[in-house]
Fold these 4 entries.
Entry 1:
Amino acid sequence: MVLTITRIVSTLFLCLTFYSNAQILIKGVVSDSKEALAGVTVIETGTTNGTVTDIDGKFSLTVKDTNSVLSFSYMGYKAKTVVAKTNANFTIVLEEEIKQIEEVIVTAIAIKKEKRELGFAVQEVKSQEILDAKETNLVNALNSKVAGVQVVSSSGSPGAAARIRLRGSTSITQNNDPLFVVDGIPIDNSGGVRTRDIESSNRAIDINPDDVASMTILKGPAATALYGIRAANGAVIITTKSGQSGKTTVSFSSSVGIDQVNKLPQLQTKYAGGQNGVFIPFESRTGKPASAAWGPAYGDPSLPTGVQFYDNPSAFFTTGFQRNNHISVSGGSEKSTSYFSIGNFRQTGVVPNQDFERTSLKLTNATQVAKFLKITGSINYNLSTATRLRKGGNWSAPMISLYRGASDFDITGGYKDPLDTPDAYLTADGLKQKTASVYDNPFFSVNKNKNTEAINRIIGFVQADLTLTPWLTGMARIGADVFNQVITENYDKRSAENHAQQSFKGSYYESQQFKQDFNSDLMLNAQHKVGKDFEVGLRLGQNFWTSKSTRIGVQGYNYLFDNFYDFNALDVSGSPLQLSPTSRNIQRALMAAYADAKVSYKNYLFVNFTTRMEKASTLPANKNTYLYPTINVALVFSDLLGITNKKWFSYGKIRAAWAQVGNLPNPYLTTNYYSPVISGGFNGQNLYAISGDLGNANIKPEVSTTQELGLELKFFKNRLGFDATYYNTLNTNQIIAADVSPTSGFGSAWLNGGKIRNTGLEIVLNGTPIKTTNFSWDASVNFTSQRTIVEDLVGDFQYIGGGAGFNNGSNAAFVGYQYGVLTSPQRFKRYGQDPNDLTIRKDLPIEVDSSGNPIIQSAPKGFYIIGNPNPKWFAGLRNSFTYKGLYFSFLWDFRSGGDLINLTRGSMNYFGTHKDTENREQATVLENSVKSDGSANTTPVLKNAAFYNRLGENATVGELWIESGSWVRLREVTLRYSFGENTTKKMFMKNLSLALTMRNLFLLTSYSGIDPETNAAGNDPSLGKDAYNMPNTRSFLLTLNATF
Amino acid sequence: MLRFNRQIIPFMKNIFQILFIFCVISISSCDFTKTNIDPNNITEDKLLLNQRLPTLEYFFGNVLASDIPKTVGNTMGQTIYIQGNTGLNTYLYGPADPSKISLWGSSYSRVLFTADQIIKDADSKNAPLYKGISKIIYAVGLANLASIWGDVPYKQLFNIGDFPDPVFDSQESVYDGIQKLLNDAIIDLTNTTSALKPTADDFIFNGDVAKWTKTAYALKARYHLHTIRVRQTSYDLAEAALANALQSNADNCVFKFVAGNPSQTHPLYNERVGTQNTQVDTKFTDLLNAKNDPRLPFYSTVRSSLTTGKRALYGPLYSSKDSYMPVITYEECMFMKAEITMAKSGKAAAESDFKTAIKASLERVCSEKKWTSDSGTTALSIIPITSSILGTFINSQGNIDSLATDADVWKRIFEQKYIAMFLQAETWNDYRRTKKYIPEADGLPILTPRAGNALPRRYNYPSNEINYNKSTPADKGIFATVWWDN
């Protein structure tokens, strides 16, 4: 720019004084390495005389004389000069100029840094990629796209929670979630944990993906030194869209789609309900054993007419619909920019009467009020509502009724639309359900047992950016994340839940939670050049964060009326008023001050040192302040060696980082508290007992120390990029609610005691194999391999996470093994196995007793290691093709390893409903078995109820039900057509596109149950349990995007 | 440019120094002590004795009403698993067995720990009556643990700081400790001077000191009789204690539940209508049926099932919403008296005590309300058992004097005691003790193992002890005998 102006000025100046006569005509053609270049500027240097090459790259220019110098310039190419001499015809070849367009990444606290200077691993996901994923939950949009990041959605239900881990889990009881930050404000991502057996969404779902400009994933403590303890597990930095100066832009997008169940367990189709080969009439199926399917074969004369196999799942699961509409207006001037948007999303489930709806409003404004002061303000309002069912093993859960109860009863009652026909699922007098078993008829359940959730949320901030001097800037920001959540849960008086919960006539629970998080940041930033080669920067900051949650809930039992649930309508005849309130207030606060010093040398060597002092309210008051340092170094060695932008090698950088950060204990565990033992007391007396966990007045934070090494390489003029990171994190002083011996008076005690080491390799490869004017092919691969080993632990063994209602297949931390291994209390005795070896040795034969049945061993310490839910590696592969206005992209997701315990299958075998049990009348010798003396086993056994009885109703012998969760999945396919200018101009639009998206189109896995991407307990430390989890879905969507 | 630097850099340094100090000061000025105080729960200093005692009794009642019937009751053939952990029916016990883990854990961390807290608190507040009652409950809880497991931790409890791995004291020393606790309790209960007296907060006796004292003596007798095979003095000590024990059914020590929410109702009511994992063993009901025992419909409701033949649900006595659970009863005292008399003086002398025992049991059990349906939610009027039916039964079962051999007498006595002590922990203690009287039969002849050749003689230590207490001894197995079972 400057060069051109200088040129123009000097030529004008010279023009006034210079004039020549001996002119010659120069002709030629200009091209680059491949083709002729049109529009190249050809100038006789020192004059205003010039021309431009035509469509074939040809030019002709009359110049002064043979000494004239011609210069050729074209955007993106190096300028070239030649002396006129006598050549009439020139062939000029211009060289491409590879300008390193520096990538700018948004890092902590909305600080933008050039990716070049970063000494740690960072990855970004842009808006279009997020939108193309078409996921309801923003967290799921990250699935398979970022190395190191594992996202497990708990099911395909609308608004289902998603569990995200950056670099795996390292904490046993404490937070393993990354910190979610929106425009510099840390926000709440709670929820999503299975409480009261109903899953709520995790709160990141309130963020509308249509408003997200980009997401930066900062993995590892090195990258989050500036967020401190709350970001010990990494941070997901979300930047929302804001106004751009210039013409006002109106964007509109609308999409519709359908969801279908993608995979279900398999039912046996041969045997009716009953026990021991005897049919049990439907009215007598009043308990779990009576609802089993160990009855006679269909077609047996003892069966009443009409008793046959009914494919109830097909009758029940339906097609879900989703629609999304979004309008945004953005514009502004040099001084002030604004962004406004409104969006509405609605999704219904593959289980009828389940839905999720989200309405969002956003307004952002940034104004330069004075030369040195810019004020930015943003408000984001969100309303999310959902209707849900109880999950898992509850008797009102549809999966239990469809898969654990016998299938010899038509749950539709013969009606075409059983969902909306009460006669289909209720008796004529309305007093009872029509059901196959003791469990609720699914159509009854979705109509009568309603659980709702409504959240009103506001996320907002006000920020002032000061430019005190050219080298000194300051920032002050206050943000708030405030939400109100209303939950209602009920089951009808005719529901089987009453039986399971001991004969109450219906239940209704309502709770309100009010949560307010406030965050304030003060920052001073100075940058200064020292000498020719050095640049130093110093940032000082202070942060204050406080969070307060107030929850009140009321539980009532015994309702008078069928469809009227209110605390005024409780039945007090026959038993006392069953109404009990609960309240829970939780408060925490953090105060921190930090300093961040940066030195850069010749713009290729960067050293960054930070230190942060953090004071936390949940630590003991006499020792609640800790100091956490980090250091990272980045060296663009290609600049140092002068090999940047060579023919095939373009860029090389190495990174090294070391960081220490802490993780905090839960509030209120520095002392012991007493709480009421029973709601309502007992017999007119107040009962108080100490809480089950022994408090610890000397609890310390966990300390996480990470070393990270990285290598970035680019080849072929940035057409091929390679980024590899190796990290090693040691997490010590694990805060554990350690199980202790009851002789202490407690079941567990809060202790610091454990060491967990997490190592991993993350590789990202991206490239553009083909690029021509009209067609390009981009490909990217991200690959992750992680391993987390428990090196030391109090008591050597601790259970992890929520059991999700089923006690077996629990995850555990056991010294010497990977974090979260699956356990069970019994296993088959195997011939030749050392009893001290706690693993399952599939290579050894099973010992059988004289009847041919496997011998079962009980674990001397209470657990055997039966599986590992952590994948060996996982990877995402994306290929995108662009041809003129067409865009076609598909994303493959690969996972190797990652066991699941298929408790659904184990339970279905126990109750005789699984396809496995079709062989129940054929006696076969147990596979891979020997007698106790080692000789071959020749005694066949029947795999009938008695056989499975010995294995335990809930898979006490869990090893049978461990299956590999490896998969190959076609996660996303997008086909988009962008209409050309001819069409858009006619409609007064800037852009118009139509896209077809398919989500989860294809799944290849050996897992026999539902989609192996599932988690019984939602967003919980536990992993790998499938216990009647709701199925996942595949979707087909059509999206229209228009910009005016 | 250079002069600029020379002025600016020191200035910058000063500014930043000031600012950093400001940051540090601003952190330290923030006081978080109040933030980390739980606003919903109280700390120990606020707690009163009349809130702690009901809690102790509630925990105690639950152990007796839930854990014991499902563990000891199952081992002794009175209850059986029909679903869930059915392996336990055939003694496939392992350290991970949740029912044993629960019994061990609840006994220590709920019953004994709460009792220990009350004893310490009552000491500091000078409330000897609270101390006495808690010591009695502590003794029973400890006795359950010791009689079932053998060597158990006693001296190093509830102090994880000083004793992270409590040693396992010998069963003998624990039994001595139990007798001392009861003796101390009896002394405490004589001290009625304190203003702090339990009343309605004592669910069991409403603060009646005399009844608690009788209970303490009865328990002394019971635990003395456990040691008859290893100590000569047991009979005399037991006899002396029995002189001051319960005198009638009005003195019975029981814990009563209330008809309310599932936390307030009797655990076996919850079991019968809800979980339904266990029920009464039909072998037991067959035994009572064969004898025309009038207690049968109170113990169990027998129904025929389409597929499994008979089902024996828990009956109105122990699975109504407001059922009670016995701690120790008058009939047990009379059974003990009969045993001592038989051992010392022979069957003729023992017969009247024995008949009194049977009569007391029938009167206690058969005075409960009978149901006409299985729902067990509505109490119906008492249908009195006629005295003639009682008389016939008592005479047919109680006439030990006319039996041929002493062995037959012992079998009869312990058979009736086994039936009377339905769902109580004493059944297993009695079973193991009868080896003294009927060595060749190895216990009660009516009780045969469901699997294998012998019934278990103890439980193995649970996993929550093995994993977290390094002092846990290597387990000798469920057929190893405890000290007094030798």
Note: Residues 609 and 1018 of chain A are 38 Å apart (CA to CA).
Entry 2:
Amino acid sequence: MMTQTAQAPKLADDKFRMIRDLIYEMSGMYFGDGKKYLMESRLARRLGACGLKTYDEYYYFIKYDPGRAQEINRLFDEVTINETSFFRNPPQLDAFAKKILPGIVAEKEQKNTRNLRIWSAACSSGEEPYSLGIYVLESLKFSLPKWKVEIHASDLSEEILQKAKTGLYGDNSLRNTTPTYRSRYFVQANGKYAIRDEVKQLVQFQQINLSDKLKMRSMRGMDVIFCRNVLIYFDMESKKQVIAHLYDSLNPGGYLFIGHSESLHGVSKAFKLVHFPKAMVYQKA
Amino acid sequence: MRQVTKSSIERIKDLPMLPDIAAQVLASVSDPRSSMAALRGLIERDPALTAKLLKVANSALFGMRRQISTIQLALVVLGMNEVSSIVTSLSVFTAFCDMPDDEFFDRERFWEHSAGCGGIARILSKRLGLKMEGREFVAGLMHDVGRILIDQYFHEEFVEIVERVQRGTGSMRDAEKEFLGASHDEIGGWLADRWGLPDALIEAVACHHEPTRAETDRALTAVVHLSDLLCRAKGIGFSGETEGFSIVDDEAWKLLAEDHPELLDMDIERFTFELDAEIEKAMEFIRISTNQPASGGEEMP
């Protein structure tokens, strides 16, 4: 952890709100007032890297400078906590595991169509799709053999997908994992945790660039899509396209999860916004 | 099994009462002959109330640029109705503060939800340009007090209701109706009536689960209903009970949108994110009411 807060120039409330609003406008990512001190230290690092002295200068730089695109991406890297761990953001996963998944399962039981398709569209090193797999196993339990479960997991980076496929994790990745789940779904060896085959075999990895129309069109019939903390890196036009593709990939009534502080306002009106405790989810009408 | 009716509630001898001062303030505000000076005199006779009122008026909830140092100034800047609402809100706490916690009812969480609801009602009405003069905060704060009455005076039934809800079979209101013949919203409405609160407030408490039943002030009830939902959406409340909901499909939302078409374009996501700050301001109200020291840390100057 880098802690340079002591030297960070003080971020006044009005400057914080100005930059916060600009980030929201550019990315749909919202930072509440409670995040001011976090932002102060992160922004201070970007200020330093750009050789700028005040937050005002930085604001104008990322708003107007012709070469701002690169800096904006660096800023987003800095302000998003680029961590991946199992069961990241419990409220979103609670909404998935306790409300959405049981609803879908019950509906499909009734219709006698026991297939489940879930897509983790920015899966990184695999923690997210495997977490979803664990929830599916917990939810279906002994009726699992009657179901056809597909968890698709994709990422832009071939390299990170290789890591995901090996399914080996350190302590840090499992910091939100309960002891019960650790022993039930992981095998511990040489200080690492290996995800068990029963989870692994539910997940199929493939490389997908979310801007690749052809590949996006091949993804159909999804019940739930997770696409968290990646849309911020797309400009508005590309973002609209990605979202339209994700919409098409979903079954009617299917759900889309984006990052917990992200918003699709102004990007798409096709979805219905559904509030769950501490989590907003988008549903295909 | 006991049947709870309005008259059985009213016969309860040690029913929490609205402090005299609040009743007098309410009477004074609703009397067209009364003056600001009279109201000021009334409030200033109670130094403890005066001190708390000024703290609330200077808290983040009101976000005043200038210091409000006297009741006179509070009345001029905020208006008689807003000041009266603050007195009522503080009195709700005074009326209930002696009622102890029990293992089936987390009072701290209850007041967090209630004040959070008040804070959300406040920002929502402000956003819509509705001049509710603090009634929305009182209504938010009071909307669930019926639950306290059930716990206090019908404890056996209360336990059965809670256990029923925890088993996940049916809603709290259905269980209340089954075990008592009345639900907490009705019971809360009876108390508000008994306290002599304005009709709009009684209605907002009594109809907060069925906002389309409101007649006196439909907007107030709708705002309280939505604030209750949004407060649960922020995870403050009784989350086991909370199903997913679409705010634009809600009856109260549609009702408000009839008069406020700008709701149709509202950035609901951002509004939801912003509620954290509003809820924090409402928590400051609880700290003032209960004489707790102000929070440090993240507090904005």
Note: Chain B has a mean pLDDT of 91.
Entry 3:
Amino acid sequence: MMLHLLNRSPQFDGLYWDLSEAFGADDHLLLIEDACYAALPAAAASLAAFGGRVSVLSEDAESRGLLGRLSDDVALVDMAGFVALTATFPHSLSWF
Amino acid sequence: MTTMARTITVEGREIALDPEGYLVSLADWTPAVAEALASEEGRALSAAHWEVLTVLRDFYQRYEAAPAMRPLVKAVRQALGEEKGSSIYLMRLFPESPAKVGARLAGLPKPTNCL
Amino acid sequence: MQDDEAALAADTPIAPLDLLVILRHPPHGSSWLREGVDVALVAAAFGQSVGLLFQGDGVFALVEGQRAGPLGQKGTHAQLAMLEMYDIERLWVSASALRARGLTPADLMLPVQLLEADALERLVHAQPHTLLF
């Protein structure tokens, strides 16, 4: 079980690909900073490899004007939820 | 960039040293420079010292970096055999720190991967 | 050498190392690769067991025939050649990254083990400490 943190927009598709290779069946992906743009419905293809186990940090989405525009398949998580996630997963890995 | 802190004179040439006593320009190195740096520290270089300095210079030639202690031991073992490829042997030759003292005398930059 | 280059079988156990360093950046264009290798070398110099995983453009770090830049800038090929002197011998490469770039193990300067996505996932999950560069 591993929590993956991702902070680059979907235009870095090589990074998304590398992450998908390391992503396991019990893993979770949290989108932060510019990775919030991957949660737009138009970017759904960039998250296809992650089986719906994806959340987006609401504070970062809000500051980018994305609240209300995000895909229903991506869960919103606030800072407290972020902390709870890191406590749930024994390991985390940042992709940037 | 390495900055010059002082110089030593070897065979009439002014050799620039950085604040830690390493050569500013690696091209300045000659065996006489090594002797001068060693005598500054109160060391006389024996044949045993020289063969290790040669291993160090070969290492730098090949890998473009000065070795930390572990790879130095390994390189000495490969070049000079099991008996000399030990940290005890190298510590006897270059007390304090074989990787740092050896690099300085061999005219290499300070090893970056050893703290 | 041939064994090293074989793909990792699905049931081969992967032992945890003290540190796994993932390298995703190519040589010369930025300092990411050099910094990642430096971290691996420092850890190994202190006696830690270290492995490297090359993913994405990081596989270009292993291409045979690299040299200094046109203005004499140091590359990372000499640093990679030095890994064995630091006893860093576990070098894994994403098989898909290599394929996507039209490369095969014969193009690489060091013997490596290729990982398909399932083995790569198992490797990353087996490691308690991973750093990404």
Note: The helical segments of chain C are 2-5, 32-45, 77-81, 95-100, 117-126.
Entry 4:
Amino acid sequence: MAGLSFDLIALQLFAGLALGAIYVLFAIGLSLIFGMLTVVNFAHGAFYMVGAYVGLYLISIGGNFWICLVAVPIVIGLFGLAVERVLIRPLYGRGIDYPLLLTFGLSYVMVECVRIAFGKTGYPFDTPEVLQGAVDIGVGYFPLYRLFVIGATAVVLLALWLFLEKTSYGLIIRAGARDPQIVRVLGVDVSRVWLIVFGIGTAIAGFAGLLAAPLQGVIPEMGGTILAEAFVVTVVGGMGSIGGAVLAGLLVGVVVSMTSLFAPEMAKVSIFALMAIVLIVRPQGFFGRAGLMS
Amino acid sequence: MTNAAQSIKPHRATMGIWYEFATRHRASIVAVVILIFPLVMPFTALAVNILIYGLYALGFNLVFGYLGLLSFGHAALFGTGAYLCGIAIVHLGWPWYAAIAAGIAGGLLMALLIGVLAIRTRGIYFAMVTMALSQCVYYLFYQAVDLTGGENGLRGINVRTIDLFGLRIDFINPMIRYYVIAAFVIAAFFVMSRILASPFGAVIEAVRENEMRARASGYDVTLTRLLTFILSGGFCGLAGALQALHLSIVPIEILHYETSGLVVMIALLGGMGTFFGPMIGAAVFLVLENIVSVWTVHWQLIVGAIFIACVLFFPAGIWGTLIARGRR
């Protein structure tokens, strides 16, 4: 353990935050959709994966990464709107399991469609030139792109926070999460609010997929793994809580990155151990409402 | 069947006589169908698959259909059964019957471990937590290369003959293999029928129908859920063990979450919470998969689309829809 300096641990911590940023983006979409619609979107990983592939396609036809950052969330968000309107809306009021099952089937269809369009094998995804290289962050050199991922996540979070807390439409969304019945009585078309929330959630998932692509490349199966890990994030943070998703997402990222430094063979399993501890000590998660879980 | 099982089935008087007969002798009917099945089914290997996945779905349906909890982690139970059976044969040199027992024990134990954690959550969380935990089991088995073969799967589970009371049975012959496996599956169906007909089976359905009322009646809801999940693990463990014997290899994909999803599809397709549903679902699903995969390699697209249509238009599944028709 002689080589373990403070700097190395600090660098690993930053790497964990960058990984955690992807989890945060994935999980807030999941949490937003669940908090509003009480739908667990099993296709969230598929939206994430399609986001990465849409980015790949746009770049292959001559676009650049910055165009993708704007275009991918829009494309995936519009697709999400269509999915909610056509497939999920008929299932409201039919029991909480049905939307979950439907989105699970949808993830099969989406993954297979991508396989048909792009083939079964994965592609590398080039880091945009401006963001290549590393910068000195005081404790050592850190890849610039990972720093960008953390920054982009912070921007999305800030925008989402401003939208939810400072706009009148955000007020309707928050009220709808509390009590959709009352909101409906007050004359608001709740189903339209749900539609938009699903669109926002999937748009963020697509954005997360695009951000993750240069870090790990793109393959059709990339959504499945992160889905299970995002479930850990939502259970740890408390389902339906955006603050919980942010905190738990960063925590899970740091836990993965720290265990891969100290005990690499336990890196994959560590976050599930974290979830097990949270389930035993505090089943509703950090910020979960106690009533939801028991 | 005892009165407990019948009293919870509503509108008994309005049902046809055929339905009452089918309910009374449900396990025997399954046995007869399984015994004559290979005579009408040209592909024995497919028939064996249907048996094994039917059993897997039977165990899953106990939790999903009868207890009302959606588990997305049953691959862990199925896979642990398969791996323990394989490990018992390959590494420990146990005879086949002891290996099957090891598989069942593995399913029970894994269900206990997952159940203790997952049962603390409810509703939608149960699906998420079971899926996350089964993903954890996947990684654990993946990394234990010495024991499980890791990515390559566990190879060399060669059972050529089966000794039964001095009788040497040729396990390579596909027809004989079918009937050996069928014996276990039929036995499992009789046990399942007995469990569902017992007072405990009535409590399981009571918990699903109205948790508050079950608790007020003095039943321990949490314990019932845990016991049911463990029982389900036993059935899935047996199915896994038979799968290991049948394939002579345990691929790591058996623990993948798609194996969990597969059984959800089968149970929903056949009809959740019905006795015949899992077997019908397995037969229809696997035959369909076989036909579609001859026609295109992208069978997941077709299967996913059919599943979406099922959720939207036939949530009661094939057998559930038939029952509803019969009651009218």
Note: Residues 27 and 33 of chain B are 10 Å apart (CA to CA).
